[in-house]
Specification:
11 helices, globular, TIM Barrel, alpha/beta, binds phosphoenolpyruvate, single chain, 257 residues
């Protein structure tokens, strides 16, 4: 069960799935059930081209939207990119530094940090992803990798606004593999993340940061994850494309009931 001071947040990262018409149909199908679970922050993260279609459905509801990525600049010659100004009014959240962005598109901690600073400057709440690869874990390097990512990606953020920050601990080996981290493994690394944030910003300022777990979260394992005191929600990939997403949100709602 998450701390009473931190409201659980479950976000669905649709990745490159559901164009505007499919997005409309999918959200219409889960809308009532998802909207009814008011004790959890519910965030849908469609591909950029579908954000407006989903926003048209959710704007008068408690369901929030997030982007899957953004550029740090407001405008300019950045072909194919989305700017923070374009997301304002549509999205409250933006996922930054997802492991697929890091591994497939070369995003570094420095770039993720520029994006996170830009998100704060434009009143978008960043969901910053960190996580070790299997070879890191096997080489007992998890703590070192997480430390580098947290210190690098989350440097210099406005300390007074850390309640707007979400960190997603997503072990790379658990993403899309069907092999979720054990609750104990997730709890151990999330404790490291919390200790680092406390070192960087002071315990009091860091306390409201919400830390999610992500990596093969399903309707079947969500309850065990939600029961952990330091897991404030989930970042969900594959299962966010089905009604299982609602069941995952419900598991977190039950953990705070
Ligand atoms: C993700 O991509 O952020 C993710 C956690 O994916 P999955 O739930 O499919 O493992």
């Amino acid at each position: 069960m998450t701390s009473p001071a931190r409201r659980p947040i479950v976000a669905g990262n649709w990745k490159m799935n559901y164009g505007p018409s499919d997005a409309h149909d999918f959200v219409s199908g889960i809308f009532d059930d998802l909207d009814a679970i008011t004790s959890v922050d519910r965030v849908l993260c469609p591909p950029a081209i579908s954000i407006a279609a989903v926003h048209a459905l959710t704007q008068k509801s408690g369901i929030m939207l997030g982007a899957q990525n953004m550029h740090f600049a407001e405008k300019g010659a950045f072909t194919g990119e989305i700017s923070p100004l374009m997301l304002q009014g549509l999205c409250e959240y933006v996922i930054l530094g997802h492991s697929e962005r890091r591994a497939l598109f070369g995003e570094t901690d420095e770039l993720v940090n520029r994006k996170a600073l830009s998100a704060f400057a434009h009143d978008l709440k960043p969901i910053v992803c960190v996580g070790e690869r299997l070879e890191d874990r096997d080489a007992n390097m998890t703590e070192r990798v997480i430390t580098t990512q947290v210190r690098g990606s989350l440097a210099g953020l406005p300390a007074e606004r850390l309640g707007e920050l979400v960190v997603a601990y997503e072990p790379v080996w658990a993403i899309g593999t069907g092999r979720a981290a054990t609750p104990q493994d997730a709890a151990d690394v999330i404790a490291i993340i919390r200790a680092l944030l406390a070192e960087m910003y002071g315990a009091e300022k860091a306390a409201p940061v919400r830390v999610q777990y992500g990596g093969s979260v399903t309707a079947a394992n969500a309850r065990d994850l939600a029961a952990l005191p330091d897991v404030d929600g989930a970042l969900v990939g594959g299962a966010s494309l089905t009604a299982d997403f609602v069941a995952i949100v419900r598991a977190f709602a039950e953990s705070v009931a």
